[in-house]
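User: Hi! Is it possible to get a structure for several chains at once, not just one? Here's what I have:
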Amino acid sequence: MKNTGLIVLIVVALIAAMSFFGVIGKYNTLVNKQEAVQAEWSQVENVYQRRADLIPNLVETVKGYANHEKGTLEAVITARASATQTKIDPTNMTQADIDRFSTNQNQLSQALGKLMVVQEAYPDLKANENFRELQAQLEGTENRITVERKNFNTKANDYNTYLRKFPTNIVANLFNFDKYPYFQADESAKNAPKVEF
Amino acid sequence: MKKLFLIILMFMSIYNYGINVPNNNGFVTDNEDIFTPSEEQQLTEYLSNYEKQTTIEIAILTISEYDGDIFDVAQEIATNWGIGKDSTNNGLLFIISKNNKTWRIHTGYGLEGYLPDGWLKTTGDEMSKSYFKNDKFYDGVIYTLNECKQRIDTEGGYTIDNNIRLVEQQKEHNKNIMIIIIILIIVLIILCIVFPDFGILILSIVLSSGDSDSGDSFGGGDFGGGGAGGGW
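Assistant: Yes, the chains can be modeled jointly so their relative placement is included. Here is the combined structure:
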C-alpha cells in the first residue's frame, strides 16, 4: 500500500514539473514573438517617418515651379502633420488604433498622389533633376512601406496564431497576453492616383 | 482511378501559387539569353571577384515574363534566393526584362544607405537611355556595376574590413554548430547500435524529414524593398 502511495506521489510530482516547465517554455515563446511584433512596428514607424522626412524638400521644390498649386501643397502639409502626430503605443494596440494610424497615413498618400500629378502641367518641374530624384525616393519609401506593413501582418499573425492555440491560450490568459491587430487594406487607398514614370 | 489521379496531378502543376520564383543559376541567371556566353562569363567573374573582395553579393537575372509589378517580383525573388550575407544583408538583385523593357535594381537592407533610391534611379535611367535602348545589355550592366562599385568605394564609406569580420564570425559560428551536430550524430549512431529498436525509430525520422536546402549559393540576406526601377 505504501508503494502505491509513493508511485502516485511521483507521478503527480512529474506532471506538476512538466506543467511548470511547459508553462515557462510557452511564456518565453510568447514574449519572443511579442517582441518580434514590436520590433517590426518600430520598423513600420521608421519607413513612414522616412516618407514624412522627404515632404518638406518636395513641397519647396514644387513651390518653386508651381506656386499656383497652393491648395494641393497645403493639403500635403496638413496631411503630413496629422500623420506624424498619430502615435500608437506598441504594447497596447487595438484594431481601432491601427486603423486610425493607417487612415491618416493613407490620407497623406492621397494628398501626395495629387501633388505628384501636378507635374504634368509644369514641364519645367517635371524635368527638374531634384524633383525627379525626390520622385524616385518617394516611390522608394512607398515600396518600403508596403514591405514593412506586410512583415508586420506576418509577425502579428505568427504571434496571434500561437496565442490562440491550446494549451498556450491558458498561459496567455494567465499573463495577460493580447492579440495584435492587423493592417487592413484601406478602401480609399485604391483610388489614390498612381504616379507613372 | 489512376486516370483521375493523373488529371488531378496535371491540374495541380498548372495552377500557380503566387509569384513563380525562377531557379537560381549562380551570379548570372540569364533566362532571356541577352548575354553571349563570353559576356556571361565575364559578368560572373566580375561579381565573383567583387564578392571575394567585399562580401557583397550581386545577382543578375534576366526574365521575359513575370506576374504583376516588377517590384513585387524583385522582392519575392531577392528574399527567396537570399542574396547577401545573413549578418549584413548586403545583397543586390539586378533584374532585366528585355521583353517588357523594364529594369529594377533591388537593394538589401545593408546596401540601402550606400546606394540610395534616387541615385539608383538616375544611374539606371542613364543606363537605359545610353545602352539598353540600343540593345547593348552587357555594356549597360557593366556601366551600372562600375558606378555602384565606385559609389560604394568612395562616397559610401563601406567598411569592408568590418563586413569581412562579421562574415568570418558567422562562418566560425556555423563551424561550431557543425561540430556539435557531428558529435550528436556519433552519439546517435552508438545508441542505435546498442538499441536496435531505437535505431529503426531514428532512421524513419531521418528518412521522412528529407527536406533539402534549396542550394546555399547565397548567404541568406534580407530585403526591405529599397532600390529603383524604370523602363526604356
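Residues 78 and 188 of chain B are 38 Å apart (CA to CA). The beta strands of chain B are 28-30, 57-62, 91-97, 102-108, 223-231.

User: Great, thank you!
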